[in-house]
Amino acid sequence: MRLTNSFLFAIILISAGCKGVGTGSETIKADVIIYGGTSSAVSAAVQVSRMGRSVMVVSPDRHIGGLSSSGLGYTDTGNKEVIGGIAREFYNLIYRHYQNPEAWVWEKQSEYGNRGQGIPAIDGEKRTMWIFEPHVAEEAFETLIRENQVPVYRDEWLDREHGVVKGRGKIKSIRTLSGKVFKGKIFIDATYEGDLMAAAGVGYTTGREPCSLYNEQWNGVQTTDNPYKHHDFTDLDISPYVVPGDPASGVLPRISTEDPGRQGDGDRRIQAYCFRTCLTKHEANRVPFDRPDDYDSTRYELLIRIYDAGWRGTFNKFDEIPNRKTDVNNHGPFSFDNIGMNYDYPDATYERRKEIIDEHISYQKGLLYFIANDPRVPADTREEMKKWGYSKDEFTDNGYWPYNIYVREARRMTGDYIMTENDVLSKRVVPHPVGMGSYNLDSHNTQRYIKPDGFVDNEGDVQLPAGKPYMIDLGSILPKKEDCSNLLVPVCVSSSHIAFGSIRMEPVFMILGQSAGTLASLALERKLAVHDVPYGELRKKLLADGQVLEH
Q1: Which of 30, 45, 84, 350 has the most CB atoms within 10 Å of its CB?
Q2: What's the confidence (pLDDT) of residue 118?
Q3: What is the DSSP string of 20-38?
Q4: Residue 90 in contact with residue 144, Cβ under 8 Å?
Q5: What is the DSSP string of 266-318?
C-alpha cells in the first residue's frame, strides 16, 4: 500500500479510534481477497480469475499498478528471457499500445531513441516494450482487470488495529476503515508495506540484518570502499559543517551525527525513498516547477558545495521514455533520494506515513525548483533544468505529481524460506522455484554521515550484479504455517535486505503475484492449506501458464 497526496485522510482520522466501525457494515465475499493495488495485486487477481475462482482487489489506492503506473517507466528488468506469464502479457499490452501511431502525441515513433536497459525499448520480434509512460501502464493494468472481470474496491484502507479477524490460524475476514468487511477463504497481501501480513500476526523484519546472520557479504552497514558502491562522495572531500571545517558551527541539514555502525553490522535503517517524477521538455506539455509553500534553500546547501567541487551529474538519470518525457531517478552524492528520512515508515501509523510522504514531496519539489532557480547553481545546470517541467498529461488529478512514493523496501516477511544473497548469486540450490529474478542486488543509500576524516559521505548503496538469473523459492511467499495458513505474500517476501535489493523489481512482483494466485486457486481446488499443495502440481500449472522457472 502506498499513501498518495490526495487521499481522503479525514476518513482515517475519523475511523482510527472507532473500534466498532464494522458493526452493521457491508460484508463482501470472495474465494480470494487481495489487499493492495500494486502490479503484483493485478497479476494475482487475473490469475485467480482465469482459474475460475471468485476474487476481488481491495486497494487503498485509487489508481492501480503501483510504481509501474506512478513514474517507474524506465523499468529495471534485468534478463528479459526470465519474464513470462502475465508479466510478459503486460509488456505485450504496452507494445501494442505504442504500435498505434496515435499513441505518439508529442513525437513520432521514429524520433524516439528506443533505448532500454541493455536492449532496445521496443522488441518487435518478441512483441514486447519495456519502457513506457505512467498513464499507459495504468491503462494496461485496467485492461487486464476489465477483461478478466475483477472487482476492485478503491480507496479502502485496512483497519490495522482491529480489522483482521483470525480463527484456527487462518484469516477469516478483514475490515477497512470505511466499515466494509471482506470475507475470503484465502488472502494475498500485495502491498509494498505488508500491512495485512503484519496485522495478521505474521513474523517479519525491517532494516538490515548483520552479514553474520545468513553468511552474507553485502548486507548490513557498508562503510568500507567496495567496487559496487555508487551515489557517494568518491573523490569529493566535502565538509559537512555549516562553517566548512568547523564542527562547532553545527552540521548541514540531512547529515547524521550518529555513529554509522561497523562494517557488516545490522541496523534498522531503511534504504532511501523518492518519487519517480515524469518530466518533459516539450513546451506544449510542460508545467513549470512550482515553489513549495515551505521552500527552504538551506536544505540544499550541501549540493552547492558538491557543484563547487566540480560535480555535474544532475541529469545522468533522466531516462528517456516515449513522447519526449523522462523517468527521473536518483543519481550521484546528492539527488532525489531523501536519505535517512524514512526509518520509521514501515511500522508507522497512516498519519505518520502521510507526514513522511509530505516531507518527501516538499524535499523533492523543492530540489527541482532549487536547481532551476537558485543563482548559486552553475549557470549551465540551472538553465538546463529550466527547460524541464512536469508532464501536463500525467497524474492529472494529482497536480502532475506521481501518485505513489517509491517504497524501495519496508517490512520483509520471515517465512518458510528466506532468500539471501547466496540464492541471488546462485551459491545455493533453490528447491522449489516459483519464478526468477535477474537484476542487480540494488540497495540505495541508508544514511549520510561524517567520516573519521571529517568529510561527509553516503552509506548503504550496493550495486552488485547477480551474474545470471536466479530462482525464487516458493517458501519466500509463504508465511510460517503456524503464523497463518491461508495467506500469501508476493511483494514483502521472505528475504534478507540485500537479496530484496534484487527481488524488489516490478516485473518480479508481477511474476510472484501470478504464482501466488496460482497457488491460492490450487489450494481451493484441492481443499488444502496453501502450504500443503504438492509442489509438483504447482510447478506444472506455472509452466503451463508461461512462467519461467529455470534458465
Answers
A1: 45
A2: 81
A3: TTTTT--EEEEEEEEE--B
A4: yes
A5: -BS--PPPB---EEE--GGGEEPPP--TT--GGGGHHHHHHHHTT---TTTTE
In this prediction the pTM is 0.95
Nearest Cα neighbor of 13 from 474, 495, 354, 375 is 354
The SS3 call for residue 487 is strand
Q: Dihedral, CA atoms, 402, 195, 75, 320, nearest 10 degrees?
A: 10
Alpha carbon 521 to its chain centroid, in Å, reads: 26
Nearest to 38 by CA among 213, 224, 253, 192: 192
Of 330, 292, 307, 322, which Cα lies nearest the Cα of 382?
Answer: 307
Q: pLDDT (tens digit, 9 = 90+) per residue, 161-219? A: 999 999 999 999 999 999 999 999 999 999 999 999 999 999 999 999 999 999 999 99
pLDDT of 416 > 50? The answer is: yes
For residue 234, count other CB atoms closer than 10 A to its CB: 11
Which residues have C-beta within 8 Å of that of residue 165, sequence separation ≥ 6? 171, 172, 173, 174, 175
What is the distance, to the nearest Å, from the Cα of residue 440 to the centroid of all Cα atoms in its chain?
15
Measure the CA–CA gap between 68 and 119, rounded to whole angstroms. Answer: 19
Q: CA 255, CA 251: separation in Å to the nearest integer? A: 7
φ and ψ of 301, to 5 deg: -60, -40
Three-state SS for 96?
helix
Distances (CA, A) of 311 to 236, 306, 315, 333, 381: 9, 6, 11, 9, 11
Sheet holding 278-280, edge to edge: 286-287, 389-391, 278-280, 325-328, 318-321
